[in-house]
Amino acid sequence: MALDDLKSALPAYAKDLKLNLGSVIGNSELPRQQLWGTVLACAIAVRSPIVLRALEPQAKEELSAEAYTAAKSAAAVMAMNNVFYRTRHLLSDPEYGTLRAGLRMNIIGNPGVEKVDFELWSLAVSAVNGCGQCLDSHEQVLRKAGVDRETVQEAFKIASVLQAVGTTLEAEAALEG
Fold first, then answer.
1. Which tens digits make up the pLDDT trace of 8-28?
2. PANTHER family, from UniProt (predicted)?
């Protein structure tokens, strides 16, 4: 299922999502690698097989093998980190913040693509997963690297639209089944 098929699968009540999906992917000003890495990482993070099956083939076409693997790696490591850091942040005992995490996350230091791209993908996945601490951390790294707010916002716009599309299509599939 291609992007157009994904848009046409959306029900009439989700017309705004259809328009936004076309806009955030079809009219994005992000460079191709940043765009399609964000799309792939978010498609994985939203946990919708419908969305992932629709968007992964084009992401694989648009990305180099290294970028394709790195985008999947961003989704994987942030799935772990977002739960860990969000939980540590939400607990009322600040002592958890002083403890060593003890979790392997070497991919963040050597993702196999430009660090800015990997950080952008990690930020977008963190938006899907709702981890404020990770969002702040990745946004600060991006801003220190000279990335403007519009680019950062573009990534979490993609995340928000893909999350909504996934939620809507999975709900429709459940109601039909």
1. 999 999 999 999 999 999 999
2. ALKYL HYDROPEROXIDE REDUCTASE AHPD (PTHR33930:SF7)
